Amino acid sequence: YLFNTVVPILLLLLLGSFVHVLVHELGHALPVLFGSRGWATIYIGSLGDPGRSFELRTGRLKVWIKYNPFLWFRGMCQPGGASFSTNQQIGYVACGPLGSLLLGAAACGLLSIGAFPGSIRLFFGFLVLFSAIGFLGSIVPAGRRRYTNDGREVYPDMVLMIRLWKSKRLA
């Protein structure tokens, strides 16, 4: 039972979490890469800590993935190498939750087709679940504060967009 049911479901959960975080962070990174000459670094499994991770690099995109898959439920995208207007910052911050929504919608659509084996349907179900939770986590402030590896506070995407909007109106 353990190896026929529990381990495969755990693997699908971990894979679903990884795919969701990757798509969400790519949602932040792609506007940076296509809208500027800047670069983007994605961290999967941490908030900016490349330690105990392996690196994938393609062009101006770097992805650091923690070796421990039980940490893959969180991530962060760090843009750099260019100056971004406040509107550009609001745009790339908003694209992360949009990526979560699109992933959830795609997984729902594939689930509705119904022509997939049970394990694939379960994986799509996990993607819908993680997308919904990830989207809500992006727009609802967390009860606890989170910090990057170098001590900077990390805000949920919606809070960051509001702070950017307010700074734009004050300037």
What features would you describe in this structure?
The chain is α+β, with helices and mostly antiparallel strands and 171 residues long. It has helices spanning 2-35, 86-113, 118-139, 157-170; strands at 39-44, 53-58, 61-66, 75-80, 146-147, 153-154. The N and C termini lie far apart (61 Å). The model has no long low-confidence stretch (mean pLDDT 93).
Which helices and strands appear, and what pairs or packs with what?
Layout lengths: L1 H34 L3 E6 L8 E6 L2 E6 L8 E6 L5 H28 L4 H22 L6 E2 L5 E2 L2 H14 L1
Parallel strand pairs: 1-3
Antiparallel strand pairs: 1-4, 2-3, 5-6
Helix pairs in contact: 1-2, 1-3, 2-3, 2-4
Short description:
With 171 residues, the protein is of the alpha+beta class. 57% of the residues lie in helices and 16% in strands.
Descriptors for this entry?
171 residues, alpha+beta, 6 strands
Low-confidence stretches: none
Distance between the termini: 61 Å
The largest β sheet comes out as: 4 strands, mixed
Shape label = globular
Strand order of the largest sheet: 2-3-1-4
Helix-strand sequence:
HEEEEHHEEH
**Strand-pairing-aware structural class:** alpha+beta
- Counting DSSP E segments of at least 2 residues, the number of strands comes to 6
Instruction: State the assembly state of the protein chains.
Output: single chain
Radius of gyration: 17 Å
The number of helical elements comes to 4
Mean of residue pLDDT? 93
Strand content: 15-25%
Summarize the amount of helix as a percent range: 55-70%
